[in-house]
């Protein structure tokens, strides 16, 4: 992967403050989405009058989540494309067209899904406090306007200042929210007695959310790899890293990890068990490769990072042993490994952002 190293590493490590243009554009986007939301709420109230806020099938909350997802798609696509000219983001213009397109698509998908999930979960929670309350025309218009306007505003600001650390936070939030939403909407309260991937085997919203989260999360990891490559190129250019091959190797391993994560969702256990397990195993192997090769591959990063890397490796091996001897159930083992992988990613990105700094 080739990226420009014109931006300073310190600028890439911390999110740049929002610019006046980004703030203004976000407000305009929110206003436009609010107007659309009001019209959408009016149509909903006329076609489906007196819907409850939320119930087992979604009701008003599901329709609001769909609307929030649609305006989030428009806002994220527009905002991410326009932000490529912002200070510290110029390197994105040097990316091949196909890579820039894939990055944009993954950012749009994840922000769309996040807007849908957060809105849906919010209305489900609100519905528990107002059980049986019908949404009349006035409230349908107001709620839709506020929901869609707020979704558009927050999403536009988010994509306008994407950095490696922000991408990492976005990935964590997306995976956690998507997985928890699948858990609480599962039609089988005893899913955890089987295995974690059982959430992807139901023919309802639960499985769509679970498998969709894994697929979109995997796509985001491949985009995440581009940002990591750019930061590593900068560290190598500043001679913080001694291994010139680190950017290419590390980013490639992250891309494979993303493809494997997406494969877990593309092939649920009830569709193709072999490919599902192959994808899950491949993701775990890439994680172990990054941990084991880290001291040689990433020589120059802070010593504390490598200490934490060995801690993650020890925790992973200990979890395997405890699962083999029967102390952990399959579900617990899968959740622990999942948490270790994404926990390590968060730690890696934090140290990547401060490598080369002098205290």
UniProtKB/TrEMBL annotation:
Pfam families for the chain: DUF998 (PF06197)
InterPro entries membership: DUF998
Native organism: Microbacterium terregens
Keywords for the protein's UniProt record, in alphabetical order: Membrane, Transmembrane, Transmembrane helix
Source superkingdom: Bacteria
Keyword Membrane: yes
Record's protein name: DUF998 domain-containing protein
Annotated transmembrane regions: 26-48, 60-81, 102-123, 135-157, 169-187, 207-228, 249-267, 273-293, 305-329, 335-353
């Amino acid at each position: 992967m080739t990226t420009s190293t014109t931006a300073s590493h310190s600028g890439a490590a911390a999110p740049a403050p929002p610019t006046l243009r980004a703030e203004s554009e976000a407000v305009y986007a929110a206003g436009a989405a609010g107007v659309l939301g009001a019209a959408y709420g009016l149509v909903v109230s006329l076609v489906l009058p007196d819907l409850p806020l939320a119930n087992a099938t979604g009701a008003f909350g599901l329709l609001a989540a769909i609307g929030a997802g649609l305006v989030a798609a428009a806002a994220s696509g527009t905002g991410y494309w326009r932000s490529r000219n912002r200070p510290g983001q110029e390197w994105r213009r040097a990316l091949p067209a196909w890579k820039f397109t894939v990055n944009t698509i993954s950012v749009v998908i994840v922000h769309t899904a996040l807007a849908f999930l957060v809105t849906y979960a919010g209305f489900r929670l609100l519905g528990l406090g107002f059980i049986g309350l019908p949404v009349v025309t006035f409230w349908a218009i107001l709620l839709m306007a506020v929901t869609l306007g707020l979704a558009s505003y927050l999403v536009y600001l988010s994509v306008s200042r994407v950095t490696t650390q922000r991408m990492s936070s976005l990935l964590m939030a997306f995976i956690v929210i998507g997985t928890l939403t699948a858990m609480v909407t599962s039609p089988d309260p005893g899913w955890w007695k089987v295995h974690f991937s059982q959430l992807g085997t139901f023919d309802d919203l639960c499985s769509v959310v679970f498998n969709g989260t894994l697929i979109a999360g995997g796509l985001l990891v491949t985009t995440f790899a581009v940002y990591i490559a750019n930061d590593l190129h900068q560290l190598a250019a500043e001679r913080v890293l001694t291994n010139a091959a680190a950017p290419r190797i590390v980013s490639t391993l992250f891309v494979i990890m993303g493809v494997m994560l997406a494969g877990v969702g593309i092939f649920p256990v009830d569709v193709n068990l072999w490919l599902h397990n192959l994808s899950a195993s491949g993701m775990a192997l890439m994680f172990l490769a990054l941990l084991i090769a880290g001291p040689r591959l990433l020589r120059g990063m802070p010593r504390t990072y490598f200490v934490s890397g060995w801690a993650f490796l020890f925790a992973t091996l200990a979890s395997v042993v405890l699962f083999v001897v029967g102390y952990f159930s399959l579900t617990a083992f899968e959740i622990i490994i999942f948490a270790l992988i994404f926990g390590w990613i968060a730690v890696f990105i934090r140290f990547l952002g401060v490598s080369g700094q002098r205290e």
